[in-house]
Amino acid sequence: MKTILNAVSFQLLWFACVLGGDDWALAAIVVYFVLHHYFFVQQSNEWWLIVLFVGLGIIVDGALIFGGWLMMPPSIWTFPLPPPWLLGLWAGVGSLFFHCLHWGQQRPWLLSVLAALSVPFSYLMGARFAEVSFGQGQLETLVLIGFIWFWLMQVGVMGVQFLNHRQGLKS
């Protein structure tokens, strides 16, 4: 049941961030992570994986934005980083590996293939809702995003294994 609640809560975060943009993102992110900490976090090292994914979001989506692959709408966000609503989604993804994506520890390549096939559609829907456009061809952008997320799932799986190993737990 917790696995389903984890997945559903992430989807609610996704909608709040994508549809609410900068205005609602910070509140949604705070609520999500307070609830996540209270109901899901069983070991404090999980927060390291969340921080890692925020860093990856800065690098990956930052490169996609500043490389002209993703064109962001005008925003109150003036820093040379992806907007808070987008980084909140990255933090949310980092919060899934110990919970609803934990099955990927046993089947990491299947997790990666499924992410490579599904995450581009999340970007496509998010782009439509958040008025983000693709600076390059849509197909090329979606293929690139699929390739990137294939490997990001491997990073998440290895992150869980590393953190569990450091804490003396089995993945």
Description:
- This protein has helices spanning 2-39, 46-66, 84-94, 108-130, 138-167, and strands spanning 70-71, 133-134.
- It has one domain.
- The longest helix is centred in the first third of the chain and has 38 residues, at 2-39.
- It has a two-stranded antiparallel sheet with strand order 1-2.
- With 171 residues, the protein is an all-alpha fold.
Features:
171 residues, mainly alpha, 2 strands, 2% strand
Strand order of the largest sheet: 1-2
- The number of helical segments is 5
Got a strand count?
2
Low-confidence stretches: none
N-to-C span: 20 Å
> Proportion of β residues?
under 5%
Number of domains: 1
Overall geometry comes to globular
Task: Outline the secondary-structure elements.
Blueprint: H1 2-39, H2 46-66, E1 70-71, H3 84-94, H4 108-130, E2 133-134, H5 138-167
Antiparallel strand pairs: 1-2
Helix pairs in contact: 1-3, 1-4, 2-3, 2-5, 4-5
Short characterization:
The protein has five helices and two strands, in the order H-H-E-H-H-E-H. The chain has 171 residues and is mainly α. The two termini are 20 Å apart.
